[in-house]
Amino acid sequence: MTRIVLLPGDGIGPEVTREARRVLERAAEVHGIALTFEEALIGGASIDAHGTPLQDEVVDLCRDSAAVLLGAVGGPKWDDMSVDLRPEKGLLSIRKELGLFANLRPASIFPALVHASTLRPEVVEGIDMLVVRELTGGLYFGEPRGIERNGPERVGVNSMVYSDTEIARIARIGFESAMRRRKQLCHMHKANVLEVSQLWVEVVEEVAKDYPEVELDHQLVDSGAMFLVKEPRRFDVIVTTNMFGDIISDEAAMVTGSLGMLPSASLGEGGVGLYEPVHGSAPDIAGTDQANPLAAILSAAMLLEHSLDAPAAAATVRDAVASVLEAGHRSGDLVLAGEDRPVTGCAAMGDLVLAEVSR
Ligand code: IPM
Ligand code: MG
What is the mean pLDDT of residues 88-106? Predict the structure, then answer.
């Protein structure tokens, strides 16, 4: 039996994870894969129960499993806590502890959603990109960090630190991904200001020698952000740092219609993978059955593909999502302001996908 750990977390995390689990279980069954599930706490839920956003036992449980499916962490209840004790720390720790340095965030547009984007249909039609975000280094983890006193002033410090080894391994993931796609790689950086970005440019160039077929381009991250809304179709694979990738991936998600649609996979050197929707815990709608479970469900599809080596089962899930959208069903986030159409709740959306997977 293959063990999957569920970490539903906070806010809408539990609602969307419940739907993703049901779909994952059914798709696996249809394709003859036997799964067992274990559920554990992370983030604010873990702080409330155990006083820490991530227990060591939970890390061990994840290490001993095939894959982890996570919901979301965080919420206003824990907003006043120091950075080191907040729910988000649980997420950062599990990524670091499992060595998940490569975060894959595919942003493509379902044909049925071309009109759900805030951008014009002719701009978004056919978008199909992959953001490869470095996940265990850079500004999120660099030292020194903290808030210090300097005489009468307080000074806040964070450091963007990358070794050439860290850059080369994520660059390689970018090139390998490009080789399986349209063979275009865009490295986003800020080398006109930051030394660390200059090193990224150098190392990405070195790695590029092993991938002569890939068309490589270095793009300043500010103009990259601009081109993402101007000509999103020009992008195939984007590789970038942890911090830039966090920002760029939300933008990439939004041009495809909604943050509620974007899945992600976090992978390391072999071993266990972690799958989570890119959206956050959306505390304002938590517990109201308004969340869009499709990003979580599509994350389960990535789990089937990358951790269980079951691309056919993954395709079943993706096709089911496409059919449900094709049939006109929309969660609230996919309905544009002023548009008059019925809204499908979280559980009902899960039911619809489940029915398609079972056909
Ligand atoms: C994401 C999120 C996280 C991040 C937060 C919740 C710590 O924004 O996965 O993109 O910044 O990585
Ligand atoms: Mg983010």
Answer: 97
* pLDDT averaged over every residue in the chain: 96
Q: Among 48, 85, 53, which residue's Cα sits nearest to residue 70?
A: 53
Classify residue 116 by its DSSP letter: T
Q: What is the DSSP letter of 50?
A: H
Give yes or no for a contact between 279 and 11, defined as CB atoms under 8 angstroms apart: no
Over the stretch 49-79, which tens digit does the pLDDT of each residue have?
999 999 999 999 999 999 999 999 999 999 9
Q: Which of 113, 116, 117, 112 is nearest to 232 (CA)?
A: 117
Whole-angstrom Cα distance, residue 121 to residue 113? 9
How far is residue 175's CA from residue 177's CA, in Å, rounded to a whole number?
Answer: 5
Tell me the CA distances in angstroms from 79 to 3, 204, 243, 276, 286, one per residue in order: 33, 38, 20, 22, 16
Q: How many CA atoms lie within 13 A of 128 on its CB side?
A: 9
Residues with catalytic roles: 140, 190, 222, 246, 250
CA of 140 relative to ligand 1 center, distance in Å? 10
Residue 144, preceding bond cis, omega within 30 degrees?
yes
**Ligand 1: does its nearest atom lie under 6 Å from the Cβ of 88?**
yes
